[in-house]
Amino acid sequence: MNAFSKLTLAIAMAAGASIATAQDNGHAGHGSHGAHASHAGHQAAASAELVDGEVKKIDKDAGKITLRHGEIKNLDMAAMTMVFRVQDPAMLDQVKVGDKLRFSADRVNGAVTITQMQKAQ
What is the pTM of this model? Predict the structure, then answer.
């Protein structure tokens, strides 16, 4: 029974990761929480939560941006200044140093990556 429980848990976790990945790829720009969150679990719902940030540096060649940001709950990360990768390099064309923005980030292939970004209103 113990081995069966572990196998069941591993399968469920793999299925959840596949759903979350598909949702990140297909719905990252939609900003919806609703039904998607119930299928993908707490982490996918939290990853859609936007965080306040300020652009400190942009490195278009490397596809990276340095932000001073608030707490990123889905990554269990305190407020700080750090460098992020961006999921889409075109995101870097939308902002300049000093801009205030709202963004969401998640781990993509092991790297903390901005998956959604918009200028603050």
Answer: 0.61
